[in-house]
Amino acid sequence: MKYDYNKMQAKLSLLPLLVFVSIFLGTGIYLQSNGVDYAFYQLPAPVAILPAILLAFFLNKQTINSSVETFVNGAGHNNIITMCLIYLLAGAFSTVAGATGGVDAIVNAGLDVIPAAFLLPGLFLISGIIATAMGTSMGTIGAIGPIAYAVSIKTGIDPALIAGTVVSGAIFGDNLSIISDTTIAATKTQGCEMKDKFKENLSFSVPAAIITMILLFILSPQTQAFDVTEYDLLLVLPYAFILILAVMGFNVFAVLISGIIFAGVIGFTGNYEAGAFVKDIYKGFSGMQEIFLLSMLIGGLSEFIRINGGLEYIAKKIQFLTHIISDKFNKKIADQLGIAALVFASNLCIANNTVAIIVSGPIAKKLAEDGKISSKRSASLLDIFACIVQGILPYGAQALLLGATFKLSPWEVSTSAFYCFILALTAILVICFRSNKEK
């Protein structure tokens, strides 16, 4: 269904998102500058977004019933509900595994094997491998997050740095995975084969990953060993179990549910009781309440932007700018930058990289055809720049989940995702210097 709205309404539809970002980030930055502890937690994000939602209802110019239906459709979108369920299961696994003593065991086992100088690069690679196998950055973060948090506590490494490393690895792998939702969406909208898009992505992702690993090596602790206490290898099994399932490509829900059950079974061999197991599952669910609510509220807000023409307005502006740039510079470069800017801006509004690709896909395909850009290149650009935004977005699912896991503000997590920033720079350089050779 196509919505016909005037330009002013399309512009106004973007205003609620700007209001939310201004309130949430503005309050946190202001309080942080005044030395307030946990500055970004003083105003809960689900509360900060309420004025934006009320404004969206007012600007929608429909009946209350119609506006409520629009909001509920967005909040109940398949991708939103999927993310929320992953939140719950990740929280439950983390709580159960921690209660059985698995966290201490896996941390000490890891520190016993990996030299201190390679902790961060190793964590980046492991996250990337799992995300490539699972096809989801969220599933990877759900599996790796609790382990990474425990490592930060044990080693004293800045938790924001470790959280950013996990996001970086998860985005790296998700972007390359041939079973990722983003890959499927990008290849289907652009009409190319997944294997071709994978090969095209390598020219962008591999250089960025190498630079990131070098940077992480430099930032790793200088000490060569940590104090490792005695640990029970049996308690490591739940983590090994979910990692093996992830690498084998099992569905993220199957991985996390199996992990919860397996962690409980291992706990039962000791002093862990069935009553505690049930309560810990619910405790894990409760710990994800804030990001669960915020994800649904953002989904509802994004639906107002979509139906009122906000994304279409952005797309038209980008097409206009690419025409201006192409008149003065290389048209192929201009159109590729246009595709990148299109999906970048769309994901800023939607906070969901898969949906952003689906929304931007048809316009990106037209830009690619006009600029004689191959479908594999346009698909690669869509996936890359959608993932870049998703990794650095303070109100994106990845930063929210790791923020809750690490007890950090989402802002601290997103600004520490170095790979995403490096990938953005690498991608722009590849666009500018390899465009004439791209076929």
TrEMBL record:
Pfam families: Na_H_antiporter (PF03553)
InterPro entries: Na/H_Antiport_NhaC-like_C, NhaC_Na-H+_Antiporter
Domain Na+/H+ antiporter NhaC-like C-terminal: 15-218
Record organism: Pseudoalteromonas denitrificans DSM 6059
GO CC annotations on file: plasma membrane
Domain of life: Bacteria
Membrane topology label: Multi-pass membrane protein
Chain ranges passing through the membrane: 12-32, 38-59, 80-101, 113-134, 202-219, 239-270, 291-307, 337-359, 380-404, 416-433
Name of the molecule in the record: Putative methionine transporter, NhaC family
Protein's UniProt keywords contain Coiled coil: no
